Amino acid sequence: MVTETPENGGTAQPNEPLVFYMGKYAAAIPLNRHYCKNHMWCLPITDGTYRFGFSAYAIRLMKDIYFLDWCVDADSHVAYKQQIGNIETSKAVSDLFSPAEGKILEFNQEILRDPALINVDGDNQGWLFSMTATNIERMSPQEYFNFLTANWENTQRILKGQMGD
Fold this sequence. Notes:
about 160 residues, six-stranded antiparallel β-sheet, about 25% helix
């Protein structure tokens, strides 16, 4: 695998994921999907229908995921940034927000039974939900890599502050 780093100028081979290094930990960024600023990936299923899941970067920051709960039902219309659920991880309990305006079609029932699927296979079996949406604020894999790079120093300061360093 070719690794994308600021040092190598971001040159990956076709179909190889970009890799963002969080210190010594790698977060793969598959090229077959787009990414949202809330660190969810967005994979087109059909025209206007998308599947969403957590990026490897988000999964690495959250560490172990223990519990996931949705506060909206399938077939619900949601607004951009509307709270749609909650997640409990080894790091914190956090709210989840819709990455776009649209209609939630389905939630991945497998992760409700076993949230560890997100940790084990976040790019495939660990997907979160599918929805119809328009005007999704998406980034290409390279744009997401650049977004992570630009914000990494601030993220490190926040993490160190939470740990009391």
